[in-house]
Write a structure and sequence with these properties.
By secondary structure, the chain is mainly alpha-helical. Helices cover 83% and strands 0% of the residues. The chain is built from 15 helices and no strands. The chain has helices spanning 2-8, 15-46, 49-76, 79-102, 108-137, 142-171, 173-193, 208-221, 223-238, 242-253, 258-280, 289-305, 312-339, 346-359, 361-399. Helix 4 (79-102) runs antiparallel to helix 5 (108-137) and helix 12 packs across helix 15.
C-alpha cells in the first residue's frame, strides 16, 4: 500500500520532503483553527463587520507591502534558517495570544497588533516555503510536491474550522491558539532533521531595491513567469474572494442561511482537495500555459453560471467544480513558476507570487464588495467573472508573440 502511494505521489519518496510535509499536515490544521478563533474572538468583542475588515488589512497588509523585500532576503540567506525563524515567530504569537485570552487581557487593540505580527511572519514564511521546495525534492518532482502541499492546505481548511467550532464552544478561543502553538513543534522538529540541497549563493548587490528591480525584470522578461503572475493576479482579484462571494450567494441568490453557507464552503473545500490530489499524481513534465488559461477561464465561467442556479444541491455541485478549477489553476501556475525559475532568483520570484496570490487579497475583497454592493449578488458575480475572463484573454493575447 505504501509503495503504491509513493508511486502515485512520487514526491513522498524524498526523505526531506516527507519530514517537511508531515509537519505541515499538523501545523496547517492548527493555523485554520486559529484563524477561525481569531475571527470569532474579534466579532464577539466588537460586533463590528468594519473592525473585522480592519483586522484583515492588519494581517494581509504586510504581505502586500513587504513581499518584495522579503524575496531579497530569501535569495541572500539559507531558506531553512529563515523558515525556522518565521515558524518560531508564528508559534510565539499563538502562545502569547492564548495567554492574553486566559488572563482576560485580550482586547481589540492587542489582537490587531498580534495580527500584524502574524502578517509579518507570513510575509517571510509563505514564499520561503515555496522557494525551498526544489531543495527538498529537486525539479523532477516539483509538480507532485506542489500538489501534495495544496492537498494538505485544503484538508486543513476543511478540518480546522470544524474542530475549532467544536472546541471553542466547550473550551473557548484560548485553547485554539494554544493548540496552534503546539502544532508548530512537529514542523520545527522536521526542519531540524531535513538536509536541504541549497543552491550556491552568488554575489548579491548591497542595494535591496536594485535586487527587487532585478527580480521584477527577470519575471517580466520570461514569458512563462510573466503570464503566470498576471493570470494569478487577475484570478486572485476577481474569482477567489470566497469569504465575500459565498455568504452573499447563499443569502441573496439561494435565500438560505448559515447551514447552506457551510455546505457551499465544504463543497469548495472538497473540490479543491480533489483537484490538488489530481495535480499531485501528475508529476512528469511541465504543465502548459493552455492548462493554466483553461483552468482560470473555467473558474471564471463557473462564477457566472452560478448566478442562474437557485437550488442548494445544484449550487453545491457547481461550487465543488469551482473549487476544483481554482486549485487546478493555482497548482498549475505555481508549477510553471517553479519550473521556469533559476535558483538565484527563486526567492524574489516566489515573493512576487506570494504578493499576487495573498498580498492582493485586500484589493480583491474591496473590488468584489464594491461590485456586489453596486450590482447586487448576481450582478456582482457576473461582473467578477467577466472581468476575470477579459483579463485572462487580454494577457494571452498580449503575450502570444513573445519568445
Amino acid at each position: 500500500m505504501l509503495e503504491k502511494i509513493k508511486a502515485i505521489y512520487p514526491a513522498l519518496t524524498q526523505r526531506d520532503f516527507r519530514y517537511f510535509w508531515f509537519g505541515q499536515c499538523i501545523s496547517l490544521i492548527g493555523t485554520w483553527m486559529q484563524a477561525t478563533a481569531q475571527q470569532w474572538l474579534v466579532y464577539s468583542l466588537t460586533k463590528s463587520a468594519l473592525l473585522l475588515g480592519v483586522l484583515g488589512v492588519a494581517q494581509y497588509g504586510p504581505i502586500m507591502c513587504l513581499s518584495l523585500p522579503a524575496g531579497v532576503l530569501i535569495d541572500r540567506y539559507p531558506k531553512k534558517k529563515l523558515l525556522l525563524f518565521a515558524q518560531i515567530t508564528l508559534m510565539v504569537q499563538a502562545f502569547f495570544m492564548a495567554a492574553l485570552i486566559w488572563t482576560d487581557q485580550a482586547t481589540y487593540g492587542n489582537i490587531l497588533v498580534l495580527a500584524f505580527l502574524l502578517g509579518l511572519a507570513t510575509t517571510l514564511d509563505q514564499p520561503t516555503r515555496q522557494a525551498m521546495l526544489p531543495e527538498l525534492v529537486g525539479k523532477d518532482y516539483i509538480r507532485s510536491a506542489v500538489g501534495l502541499n495544496s492537498t494538505i492546505v485544503n484538508v486543513a481548511r476543511m478540518v480546522g474550522p470544524a474542530l475549532a467550532a467544536a472546541l471553542m464552544a466547550e473550551y473557548g478561543a484560548g485553547l485554539l491558539f494554544f493548540l496552534n502553538g503546539l502544532s508548530f513543534i512537529p514542523v520545527l522538529v522536521g526542519l531540524a532533521l531535513i538536509q536541504t540541497r541549497p543552491a550556491a549563493v552568488k554575489g548579491h548587490s548591497a542595494k535591496i531595491f536594485a535586487e527587487i528591480r532585478a527580480g521584477l525584470a527577470y519575471v517580466k522578461d520570461n514569458r512563462f513567469l510573466a503570464q503566470g503572475m498576471f493570470a494569478m493576479l487577475v484570478v486572485s482579484v476577481f474569482v477567489m474572494n470566497f469569504s465575500i462571494l459565498t455568504p452573499l450567494y447563499a443569502g441573496e441568490i439561494l435565500g438560505e442561511g448559515l447551514e447552506i453557507y457551510g455546505l457551499l464552503l465544504s463543497a469548495i473545500g472538497a473540490g479543491s482537495l480533489l483537484g490538488a490530489m489530481v495535480v499531485a499524481s501528475r508529476s512528469q513534465g511541465v504543465p502548459s500555459l493552455r492548462l493554466l488559461y483553461g483552468s482560470g477561464l473555467a473558474a471564471s465561467l463557473l462564477l457566472i453560471v452560478s448566478t442562474f442556479l437557485h437550488n442548494a444541491t445544484a449550487a453545491a455541485v457547481l461550487f465543488s467544480l469551482l473549487g476544483f478549477s481554482c486549485i487546478f489553476f493555482i497548482t498549475t501556475t505555481l508549477s510553471i513558476v517553479q519550473l521556469h525559475t533559476e535558483d538565484r532568483f527563486r526567492g524574489r520570484v516566489m515573493s512576487i507570487y506570494s504578493f499576487v496570490f495573498l498580498g492582493i487579497t485586500p484589493v480583491g475583497n474591496l473590488l468584489t464588495g464594491a461590485f456586489m454592493e453596486w450590482a447586487g449578488a448576481a450582478g456582482g458575480l457576473v461582473a467578477c467573472g467577466m472581468a476575470a475572463i477579459i483579463g485572462l484573454l487580454l494577457i494571452a493575447w498580449r503575450t502570444k508573440d513573445r519568445a
